[in-house]
TrEMBL record:
This is Centromere protein S. SUPFAM superfamilies: Histone-fold. The lineage of its organism: Eukaryota, Fungi, Fungi incertae sedis, Mucoromycota, Glomeromycotina. It comes from Gigaspora margarita. GO terms for biological process: DNA repair; replication fork processing; resolution of meiotic recombination intermediates. GO terms for cellular component: FANCM-MHF complex. PANTHER family: CENTROMERE PROTEIN S, CORTISTATIN. The keyword tRNA processing does not apply. Transmembrane segments: none annotated. GO terms for molecular function: chromatin binding; DNA binding; protein heterodimerization activity. Keywords: DNA damage, DNA repair, DNA-binding. Pfam families: CENP-S. Belongs to the TAF9 family. CENP-S/MHF1 subfamily. InterPro entries: CENP-S/Mhf1, Histone-fold.
Amino acid sequence: MSVISPLKTELWQRVYDICQQEADYLKVIPTHQFVSALTDLVYKQAETSAMNMENFANHANRTTILIEDVKLLTRRNEDLNEMINNFAEHINEKHDEH
């Protein structure tokens, strides 16, 4: 059995949950077609992001994706980049404690 099907099913559920929360706030009703299209968009973006990070690692002659690769990927989205940097700092602090 392929891992993609359960992954896409779980992703669809998460996208649906977020759509429902936003729909309640906006007083709209998202269709299943909308949720499916948005899920496909999110999935394709995740695939592209994974490929880009893999390429960053390969370019540096590494087989492992590092936090620096994630930071490089998010550099054009200031809010997301700030969140990633804060998360990385938190991880480094936890690592230093041990």
